[in-house]
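Figure 2 data, in text form.
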Amino acid sequence: MKLFLNFITILFVTFVFGQHKSEDTSGKLYISEKKYSILFPYNWHLQQSDSLQKKFMLLSEKSSANDNFIENVSLRISDLGYSGVKAKTVKKIIDKRFGVSSEIISNRKVVKNGLQGQEIVYKQLMSNGVFGTILQYFFIKDRDLYILTFCSKSEDYLSYMPVFQYMYENFDIR
């Protein structure tokens, strides 16, 4: 019986402390992980995250019953295999990634937490037949490539821009 109680206690502690560290900060939610943190509106939903804390996806609420697109924000952290990759190299890789189906709106250098990166805004035909506008940030820290992506329907992009900007300003790479 004592062994069973110890087992239940260990499971409980593992479950409670193994969850994402998120807290409500006056109408905003905060995710804090080993490699990053981000503050986002409470009405956005954390859909998925892996156990290695290397990615997440946030989904907006539908604006109406007829809304056929859910705006989203995602982060992916990829191990490049070695450190010392230069921002120029990443920019070349990113530039090759965009094909004929993408219309690049802007492509510029940015700095976040002292890290040089790249900001790219482009339009693309999505799988549901709707044109989406995608804002992506690329940063390298040590061996990791961080790709922070904001996506919305093209006609709604400007209305979501303040929300995307707020999340970007409150995104930290550690």
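Caption note: The first strand starts at residue 21 and ends at 24.
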